[in-house]
Amino acid sequence: MTRRIQLYDTTLRDGSQSEDINLTAADKLKIALKLDEIGIDRIEGGWPGSNPVDVAFFKEIANYHLKHAVISAFGSTHHPNFTADSDPNLRAIAESGARVASIFGKSCEVHAAEALRLDAARNLEIIGDSVAFLKGKLAEVYFDAEHFFDGYKHNAAYAQSALRRAHEAGADVLVLCDTNGGTLPHEVARIVAEVREALPGAAVGIHAHNDCELAVANSIAAVQAGAVQIQGTINGVGERCGNANLCSIIPTLELKFGGEYACLPEGRLQQLTAVAAYVSEVANIPPFSRQPYVGRSAFAHKGGVHVSAVNRKSSLYEHISPDVVGNRQRILITELAGRSNIVSLARRFGFHLDKDEPVVKGLLTELKKKASLGYDYAAAEASVELLILRKLARRGVREFFRLLQFRVLETKHDSEGEPVSEVSVMVDVEGVTEHTAATGRGPVNALDNALRKALLGFYPRLSEMRLLDFKVRVLTGAETGGGTASTVRVLIESGDSDSRWVTVGVSFNIIEASWQALADSVTYKLYKDEHARRAGSDGE
Amino acid sequence: MTRRIQLYDTTLRDGSQSEDINLTAADKLKIALKLDEIGIDRIEGGWPGSNPVDVAFFKEIANYHLKHAVISAFGSTHHPNFTADSDPNLRAIAESGARVASIFGKSCEVHAAEALRLDAARNLEIIGDSVAFLKGKLAEVYFDAEHFFDGYKHNAAYAQSALRRAHEAGADVLVLCDTNGGTLPHEVARIVAEVREALPGAAVGIHAHNDCELAVANSIAAVQAGAVQIQGTINGVGERCGNANLCSIIPTLELKFGGEYACLPEGRLQQLTAVAAYVSEVANIPPFSRQPYVGRSAFAHKGGVHVSAVNRKSSLYEHISPDVVGNRQRILITELAGRSNIVSLARRFGFHLDKDEPVVKGLLTELKKKASLGYDYAAAEASVELLILRKLARRGVREFFRLLQFRVLETKHDSEGEPVSEVSVMVDVEGVTEHTAATGRGPVNALDNALRKALLGFYPRLSEMRLLDFKVRVLTGAETGGGTASTVRVLIESGDSDSRWVTVGVSFNIIEASWQALADSVTYKLYKDEHARRAGSDGE
After folding, report:
1. Is B442 within 8 Å of A509 when comparing Cβ atoms?
2. Same domain, yes or no, for A269 and A144?
3. pTM (2 d.p.)
């Protein structure tokens, strides 16, 4: 018997309380549509009426026909100075256009008294009235029992009576919140079971925070004890240490319980890695590479022992097949790399090598040497590919261009002005010397502009290529003189209509490091297209 | 009754399998000494004999007298082609100088057959001989039963017999490894209990990986079921999704079980945040801000509702007091900030404001406007402090210098050369125009050098200040023209002998953004010292 667990996503509300997240209404809309696509059941959009971003979101999302998800509005029980039907926030929820709502209320006497200055009986009345009011206006109402587990440990009878009041007023799910994230899995299991015993007809949900790194375990423990709704966020974003990470909970429930639980509609799990990446991108936060299931490193193998075993049989060091969640295996090239790593990587690029060929040893030595200088080949696979190609291809990788000189000039007048960037570039392209100059929005952009200007006549397809992201990292703090004189590594991610690639540059000079990564990126684009064309014509 | 749990740290071995970690022998030494200081029991240094870094580490660490920790050497059971006492790796462990060792062996038939091409009986023999050999040479030997949980689920009897063989050969701890990280807490609890029942005299350990985001929960479940040793890493670093995070396990066991478990020596828990930061710094990996207990965001409050409540009573939204683990509470200034955030922040700087004062509203508007442009005030508290001070202080923050002009020139000849950086800076310092020029290792360093040259005669204490780190982030990808033309944010962390501070600059031009952060950093240093001097003389 498979049990369906309802997924309630709060990335747009609790998730946006993350220190490093600020979402616009347009961002929220994009994320909501993506969550609908993968088959999330409920999407909490925000607090209607609390701020212009959330007002705009609820207004805008009403124009879309969602395929699967239902939008939920968030708020609290009514303010003690109002009645439920005169409370501006509850009215805003009722009028938001959302068909369901979650409202939080106090289930802990101490919190009611200290945060709201309410006595215990009045708090229960407020819970009942608020739920009943919304239940009269919307299809479903969920009661988020804030600080439930702490409250329960302090006074179980009172915490239960808060739930009972919400239940009697018509709440569709009683959501037990571990607001401060300090509860342990065995406590969650026990308390959820006790709540279900005390309120047999009630549906229970779980809302966990990750302050003890246990939010996923707590959510799963709640489901095992009978909870039917899980509240969480994509990538586990959220205030402080974040919310329960749906990207870990969903595959664990679907893949690790022998079919006992289902979360997403059939066949959607493969979208998980893409959804996680999309949300990071829209929210403009760096993805966490070690993130379970969907992280860039989740199926990355570096140790020599592991790599040989993985080459023989993947499941030896992988708990699931990466493609089940839309991720992929990666074999890393690093300073510790063994020859089997090189062989694996070369195979991906179409070269079948033997571990004992001298060229493998030579490549390993060269990679190790550059890696020890700071070239992050684990991140910049396109740069590794170029390095291997330059070494392996008998005919050599075609040298599309060669730098003869560049000059970058930045001038800023007075403390308020923006500096002006002027760049000149001289390159040799197929025996012709091209000398161009350009301005730009900053020195790297000016360099990019000047280089493209020099090359575009020869290679018009460069116009499709875009730089998507770049990252700078100071490598060697105090050791090389330190401070602003430290070595920096620049990673540039570029893309065109059908792929993305990352290249690397290292120098104590940020302009030089950017130039290296930029030059590699352009070369990679030209190589890639030529290779595709050649492969295409071979096929005909 | 308090039960002591032994902490076995493998940051230097399994942790260094992280995609983004490469440790030198000097790095390993630094980390080992720090782990000893906080009171970790066992420190796994690496594989003696497998690579020059680990050889150097074992040689070097032998010269130190550790206060608490014992160094452990890692390796595998002997190779099938050797006997235990002729196996070069086991001999290297015996001769490494380490007093204890962990060796891993197969406890799953399938793995023995597929990874080592060994039959089941020969594998048991190898385990027994390897443990017995090392037991004759060292004080303690731990047997890491690789893939134990997967093996147990496949064939419990065989997995048990692998443990029994190691136990009979004298292994001091039988470490159950969830090598692929796919096991769930309820499975760990059951299997650990069954193992303890089958081998009543044996001490059991747990080695968990985080592939389901459950490594902390699994380690705790094992301890609750009777395990006495936990293997993990600082910050949860490690291959793929990482190892069990000791920074979450230690405080959870010590603080959340009513004194049932102790891990660190009395009074050391407060060092935890500092140790986590130190390891990140030495390993040169960006700290994960949402990391439980020790992360920068772990006690950071952003939501308006939370902030007012936290101002009233911290425990309302904090599961522990941050200082117990050496962390601190932070009230964030962001686009969503309420006036209570401003009041809290100003109070920290010694200004007692009322929420309703017009200056608070004005500050909020200004902060929101700049935050919407990309100024990350949550990260760059020193820049917020300057902004508030400039607004609040009646006398104004003294303007230590004013930029009149800078020029940055980068020249690179041919593709192999490094560019040369030349900078000229003209500033007004206390009515005097200073015009200086400098070269540097890159444009930011040259700017830094030229600015210091201009100011040092006026403010000699600038010589103490160092730039510790800088970060660059592309903010607005496709939206503002994108690519190399995107807006970038630069965060600079600076320090002197008694503090560290972070400042921010935002521009589409990386040089300009760096300049803003640099100028704020220098101003902050000068302001801070002046403030301290004034406070000092007030006190006399």
Report:
1. yes
2. yes
3. 0.77
